[in-house]
Design a protein that fits this description.
Helix content is 17%, strand content 31%. With 906 residues, it is α+β, with helices and mostly antiparallel strands. It has an 8-stranded parallel barrel. Helix 14 runs parallel beside helix 15. The protein is elongated and about 115 Å long. It starts with a helix and ends with a strand.
Length: 906
């Protein structure tokens, strides 16, 4: 009963924005007319002229709705049909003729309507009329029989000194005895009437209990609400040596909440611990530091083991979450997240409405880490796998976008087999919607729930660390979406001190952060330290660094050298180094060599885009196929200072370009396409420096990443793990496994003091890469030509010894047989292929065909290994660990002392 009364009280507040005749509404009501008071609520449509086309986007909340966000029977947004057009009545008063509710909305018989839901908009949708706080407008609809409603003319959640007199209206579906009480004292009554209007002046600051009562033939109906006559925030010093935004648990068990809100006058904390009732006891204090104002309040008695939710009500108008919240509830999108992905997710009470609700749970970070002191490889030895959790796993053969963190855990063996030593996750901060690349963040300290729980993310990172894999997060500090509290607090970017009215650089995306604002940069410093401390992430890739300069630093152009960018990234790096001096710091800057070399001097890495040339090679074109830029020192960059890549989420797939624009032999043959993808991989991974693999590059994925206009196609991609059943695709994958193994096992051959030479510019005469140190040597030979019927003898290959028996084949293109003549310094191999030779004395490298000391085969459903080895493990093609005996029919990968073998159980 209490929940119902609270719901009615909240709904009654929304009725100030919309009213109706008759009132109260019931599903059986006839000749229903809804009146929109445009000067109430968010006033987004206030002051419009009679000639303006104003429309209702409207639906119903029924007994089948999950919550108030689950509208039923609403039209498509932007529907300007005549039935949704409002009629002008007078200044800021419009009406919508509905008639019969069930008929207007098309509600099936047997489904009960509990509310009418509205957003009013202009024909072009540029202006929207909503409830206060930009929430949807709800008008209650009651069941048949005797019911009452309570409405008032309050203009916000609270009373303030500027207005202490309120007019309350009780409406009844039938004539009844009506009364209004304040703190138990009757202040108005009417006998056998359908309405009671009472004006009441609140005498002093405090909390007041309001009760509307209707009595008919012994049947009683009540509606209650709390009115808070609030004081204003007063100045008081923050209770700590340093102001900390967000929540801080104090030694006595109390919790201090703090919100930065420059130019704002007053704020109140609204929390679940008192059922979100406005209370004069929760008016926050403020402290000013320069131009910045911080609101704070300390709340006693919050249990560290309990989950609480809260938001801030600022200036009695703006309802916002906490920018520093560690978890956020999203009223618009959480309803689409299944219980399997996020069990026992806290719910947003109906009385709160559409507010991004912050979660306080002190023990949210009490995860039992198995690896507490992980240390990754030196930054120049990184083999990074760029991974979008949404599309990496999910329903096979579908583009559902339902990949999760837990599903990704199952694929860690698959990545480990490739020699991946770092995973870079596309942004996982709380972002707009559930199906996103994540470059539209709203809250920087909260993980997005679409992929899993906070503990899921931590378990994923922990498991990666157990497998020797670092985890790098993609961070978006250039822009945010429109639900960040510092945006909502000011209505738009133009009015917010935290945003630029327009981007000062060439890359205007969403809402551009004002990097000059000290609290914006403080947010970045706090953010990078938080994720490293609480989630044990190992570093970051920073998106669109070109946009992170000072606002006045772009007079010479966005592409020009920018000292302020260097300085800002150096400050962020210094903050990270406080937590982990070896943390990985990667810029997507793509700037000039002066700027990037200055960043490199600070220990930072910079992205190096080799996509165009890689695609040219993969498609079979000699032109622009030079691949020297995989090595930073060949690109006017400091040695080992770049993360180079053939593909990234921002670039088109080599596989797609092959099938679309490749030469005839490439277009015609899947085997050729996969072979050439492997050749690109060899030329990337086996050159010095860090490199990155965009998910499924190793399979030659052929799904386009671009839309019709050449922009990024961020839509869901089809999950195609079954591609591994294709022998040529699987052969391509095994090649990438070889590259990773060789690069990790013999990292010193790619160090700065190694003897390294790369001839990756030729075509007709082949290409070679050689790396040596002491008595160890790796030689890569490639035939770039495209006619699969031809072979090429590559001459003058840099073998250091003349004895063919001194070398062994470490890797080759699937289904090829290269021939080595070390004395003649030649390797003969087919078109579209590569071969990699190593010294015979290099342990741990076996021939790609199991003809060395170790043999791997199957017998009666069991995997049999002969020869001397230390460790062996088996996996399915999807990366799941498999037993060594009693296997079902299928293809399995067996890794023996780190070397992959493919076996088939028939």
């Amino acid at each position: 009963m209490l929940a119902a009364l609270l719901m009615c009280a909240f709904s009654a507040k929304a009725a100030d924005v919309v009213t109706s005749t008759p009132s109260p509404l019931q599903q059986e009501s006839k000749n229903v007319v809804v009146y929109f008071h445009a000067d109430q609520g968010n006033k987004g449509c206030a002051g419009l002229s009679a000639s303006t086309g104003l429309y209702a986007h409207t639906g119903v909340i029924t007994d089948k709705s999950k919550n108030d966000s689950d509208w039923k029977y609403a039209p498509t947004w932007g529907d300007n049909s005549e039935k949704y057009q409002l009629q002008y009545v007078s200044e800021d008063l419009w009406k919508l003729e509905i008639g019969d509710i069930a008929t207007y909305y098309g509600v099936p018989e047997g489904e009960n309507v509990t509310k009418l839901a509205f957003v009013f908009r202009t024909a072009d949708s540029k202006k929207e009329g909503k409830d206060a706080g930009n929430t949807d407008i709800m008008l209650p609809v009651f069941a048949p029989g005797f019911n009452i409603t309570l409405t008032d003319n309050m203009t916000g959640e609270l009373l303030t000194a500027s207005k202490t007199t309120v007019t309350f209206t009780i409406s009844s579906t039938e004539q009844a005895d009506l009364s209004l009480s304040v703190n138990g004292n009757v202040v108005g009554s009417a006998s056998m009437n359908t309405s009671l209007v009472t004006e009441y002046t609140f005498p002093a600051e405090g909390n007041y209990a309001i009760e509307a009562k209707g009595v008919l033939n012994g049947l009683e109906r009540t509606v209650t609400k709390t009115v808070c006559y609030a004081g204003t925030s007063t100045e008081a010093p923050y209770p700590g040596a340093k102001i900390q935004q967000g929540t801080v648990r104090n030694a006595d068990g109390s919790v201090t909440f703090c919100l930065a809100a420059p130019k704002k006058k007053t704020a109140m904390l609204m929390g679940s611990w008192n059922d979100f009732d406005a209370s004069n006891d929760l008016v926050m204090n403020y402290v000013d530091e320069g131009d910045n104002r911080f609101f704070w309040i300390t709340v006693p008695g919050l249990d560290a083991d309990k989950v609480y939710t809260y938001y801030y009500l600022v200036d009695n108008y703006y309802k916002v979450g906490d920018p520093y919240a560690k978890l956020v509830l999203d009223p618009y999108n959480d309803k689409y997240i299944s219980e399997d992905i996020f069990p026992d997710m806290p719910q947003i009470p109906e009385k709160v409405g559409n507010v991004m609700l912050a979660v306080y749970h002190e023990n949210i970070n009490k995860y039992d880490w198995q690896v507490k002191d992980f240390k990754g490889v030196p930054k120049q030895d990184l083999i990074i796998y760029e991974l979008l959790l949404r599309d990496f796993t999910g329903t096979e053969g579908k583009a559902n976008g339902n990949g999760t963190v837990r599903m990704a855990m199952e694929k860690i063996p698959y990545l480990k087999a490739m020699g991946v030593n770092a995973i870079e996750l596309l942004p996982i901060n709380e972002f707009d919607g559930n199906l996103s690349w994540g470059y539209n963040p709203n809250f920087y300290f909260a993980p997005d729930k679409a992929y899993g729980t906070p503990d899921d993310y931590k378990e994923f990172i922990d498991l990666c660390h157990q497998n020797g894999i670092a985890v790098i997060l993609d961070m978006v500090f250039n822009q945010s979406a429109g639900l960040h509290p510092w945006y909502v607090l000011y209505g738009n970017a133009a009015n917010s001190p935290f945003y630029n009215r327009s981007a000062p650089h060439d890359f205007s995306v969403l809402n551009d952060w004002s990097q000059d604002h000290p609290l914006v940069e403080q947010q970045w410093l706090d953010c990078v330290k938080y994720w490293m401390e609480e989630y044990k992430v190992d570093g970051y890739r920073f998106d669109l660094v070109k946009g992170l300069g000072d606002n006045d630093s772009y007079s010479a152009g966005t592409q020009a050298y920018n000292k302020s960018r260097v300085e800002r990234m150096t400050r962020i790096h210094a903050a990270m180094s406080e937590i982990n001096p070896d943390a990985y710091f990667i810029n997507e800057n793509l700037a000039g060599n002066q700027e990037e070399n200055e960043m490199a001097a600070d220990g930072q890495l910079n992205w190096a885009n080799v996509n165009n040339n890689s695609c040219q090679y993969a498609m079979g074109y000699n032109s622009s196929s030079i691949l020297t830029r995989f090595d930073a020192s060949k690109d006017s960059r400091t040695w080992g200072s770049t993360v180079s890549y053939a593909e990234s989420h921002d670039e088109e797939r080599m596989g797609y370009k092959q099938i679309t624009w490749g030469v005839a032999q490439v277009k015609a043959s899947n085997a050729v396409r996969k072979a050439r993808i492997a050749c690109v991989g060899a030329q990337m991974i086996l050159q010095p420096g860090a490199h990155m693999i965009w998910q499924f590059s190793e399979l030659g994925n052929e799904q386009s990443t671009k839309d019709a206009n050449g922009g990024n196609n961020t839509g869901n991609k089809t999950v195609l793990w079954n591609d591994l059943n294709d022998p040529d695709t699987y052969g391509c994958y095994l090649s990438w496994c070889d590259f990773g193994y060789l690069r990790n096992e013999y990292a010193d051959l790619f160090a700065q003091d190694a003897n390294f030479k790369a001839n990756v510019t030729g075509w007709n005469n082949g290409r070679t890469i050689t790396a040596s140190k002491g008595d160890r040597e790796i030689v890569v030979v490639l035939n770039p030509n495209t006619d699969p019927s031809t072979t090429l003898t590559v001459e003058n290959v840099g073998f250091l010894l003349d004895d063919t028996s001194a070398y062994k084949l470490a890797s080759k293109t699937y289904n090829t047989d290269p021939v080595l003549d070390a004395a003649a310094k030649t390797v003969t191999l087919p078109a579209n292929s590569y071969a990699i030779y190593v010294r015979s004395n290099m342990s741990g490298v076996d021939e790609i065909t199991p003809s060395g000391d170790v043999k791997v085969y199957t017998q009666n459903g069991d995997i049999v290994i002969t020869g001397s080895y230390t460790q062996a493990e088996a996996f399915t093609l999807s990366g799941a660990r498999a037993p060594m005996t009693g296997l079902n029919t299928g293809i399995y990968m067996v890794r023996v002392d780190g070397k992959p073998f493919k076996v088939i159980v028939k």
